[in-house]
Design goal:
The chain is an alpha/beta fold. Helix content is 38%, strand content 13%. It has 17 helices and 17 strands. A six-stranded parallel β-sheet has the order 5-4-3-2-1-11. Helix 15 links the parallel strand 13 and strand 14.
């Protein structure tokens, strides 16, 4: 085989990131020359349905019939196409506790993204979030109970499958009990095997045995199984645990290899080969073009010199081919948008959760009351999630019911709660980021009601009754208003400990 033939085999084993909002001639040529069949699109690649459908159509033309065109459309704060019906986060569905609802939501998500040309969704999250300090999972998890989370996640997956979109459960074997974000550093989960088997591994084991179409690896070290390498590059974990012990036959894809947990420790090409040697089928090479070239060269060299035997390469390709064949990519009309919007609104309402303190339950001020809203000024993205809801948007939403005075803060640790006017207004704190509050907030902030519009663990940081939505999409704010107006009750039950 020639070097170019080896590179074309390597190209079948990687997924790339694209830059811009259309397929430029250089990227088109790069894809065709290297037989690349996988692409993941992000928010910066999207403007509206017409543009995005044209983009995915061009990708299908360049990649061929077995293209795998992926998106992170989990729900809650992790969504990329913002104009389609906004799905609730996994934890909102966990709070509702209804598998049939989870299935319906998974199907509705799939209908929307399939119409845009996607055939692979990197969702749902199967991590069990039992660590209140987790900086990146939180409401992306269905909860902390392995059985309940598995039941809801597999129902969500079944819904997606029913509409022709493959799911990819993540982040195997579990990112829930970390206090480090693998986008920024390399976490370690130092638990004994028995505890991992009972907790973190349980939902992934269930998904493996249920035939989940794909699993995404975690850039996390589990010393009980492999003290030297993160799961993404660990043969004892990917091959020994997932393939051999659990008998998993679906696709294994890495998380983004540009994440700091990997990229700051291994060269891109070496990391990609390590992941394939460990048992991955596809490497998510979503760095720069130079990084993608380096990855192609390294994988091609590993095939050529026999480190990646051809029979094993073809076994990987067969799994990827089967995934694409079962879920052909094809954009089209989105005929159920209005019905799906109504479904998402219902699901957000079903997850709405009230939290009382020992002293008080959440109170609803009477419509027309004078209300003071306190919220963060900035709503920047953390690189994983979309940016939160602006303070002015919350004020406008509450303004449909109340006379609202908006007060914003730049830094929670220095904001002086005691300086707020003592004028009798009902005071509402709206939390619009995932970041937990510090000791100063815990010691001094005293709202009448806390709207935890993102990370439910923030409700533990403020000594006040709380209403938790597990996300900040417009239907979540509408659900808050419906509760405030007395139209609905908050019937969700928070699916993690300490609540």
């Amino acid at each position: 085989m020639t070097n170019q033939e080896y590179r074309r085999l390597a190209g079948r084993l990687i997924m790339i990131r694209l830059f811009g909002t259309e397929l430029d001639a250089g990227t088109d040529a790069f894809i065709r020359a290297n037989a690349i069949r996988g692409a993941c699109l992000f928010r910066q690649n999207m403007t509206d349905a017409e543009q995005l459908t044209a983009f995915t159509g061009a990708l299908r033309d360049a990649m061929g019939a077995d293209a795998l065109i992926a998106i992170d459309q989990e729900g809650g704060a992790v969504v990329r196409a913002l104009w389609v019906p906004p799905p609730p986060s996994a934890m909102a569905l966990g709070a509702a506790g209804d598998a049939a609802l989870a299935r319906d939501v998974g199907a509705a998500v799939a209908r929307a993204i399939r119409a845009l040309g996607f055939n692979w969704n990197f969702a749902p999250v199967l991590d069990l979030n039992n660590n209140p300090l987790n900086p990146v999972i939180a409401e992306r998890s269905f909860g902390a109970d392995p059985q309940a989370a598995s039941r809801l996640a597999l129902a969500w997956t079944d819904g997606s499958e029913s509409q022709g979109v493959a799911c990819c459960v993540k982040h195997f074997p579990g990112h829930g009990d970390t206090h480090v974000d693998s986008h920024r550093d390399l976490p370690t989960v130092a638990k004994p095997v028995e505890e991992l088997e009972r907790f973190e591994f349980a939902p992934f084991r269930t998904a493996a045995r249920a035939g989940a179409p794909a699993m995404m690896t975690a850039h996390i070290v589990y010393p009980a199984l492999d003290p030297d390498r993160p799961a993404t590059m660990s043969r004892p974990i990917l091959h020994g645990l997932l393939r051999e012990r659990w008998g998993y036959e679906g696709v294994i894809i890495t998380d983004g290899m540009d994440m700091h947990a990997i990229a700051q420790r291994w060269p891109a090409g070496e990391a990609a080969v390590n992941a394939l040697l460990a048992g991955a089928d596809m490497v998510m090479a979503i760095g720069s073009r130079a990084t993608q070239e380096e990855t192609l060269d390294a994988i091609a060299a590993a095939i050529a010199d026999g480190r990646l035997p051809l029979d094993e390469v073809h076994a990987r390709l067969a799994r990827l081919d089967a995934l694409a064949a079962r879920h052909p990519a094809a954009g089209g009309a989105y005929a159920t948008e209005q019905e799906d919007r109504a479904l998402m609104a219902l699901a957000w309402r079903r997850g709405l959760t009230a939290r009382s303190t020992p002293q008080a339950a959440p109170r609803r001020p009477a419509p027309g009351s004078r209300l003071r809203l306190v919220a963060r000024q900035d709503v920047v993205s953390d690189g994983v999630s979309e940016a939160g809801v602006p303070a002015a948007a919350i004020a406008a939403s509450l303004g449909r019911l109340y006379d609202v005075d908006l007060v914003t803060f730049a830094d929670a640790d220095s904001f002086d709660w005691g300086a707020l006017p003592q004028d009798g207004r009902f005071t509402v704190l709206a939390s619009t980021s995932r970041r937990r509050y510090g000791p100063r907030v815990r010691a001094s902030w005293r709202p009448d009601l806390h709207l935890a519009l993102w990370n439910p663990y923030q409700a533990l940081d403020v000594d006040a009754p709380a209403l938790m939505t597990y996300g900040f999409a417009p239907p979540a704010l509408d659900a808050v208003n419906a509760w405030l107006a007395g139209e609905i009750e908050a019937q969700g039950r928070c699916p993690v400990p300490n609540f």
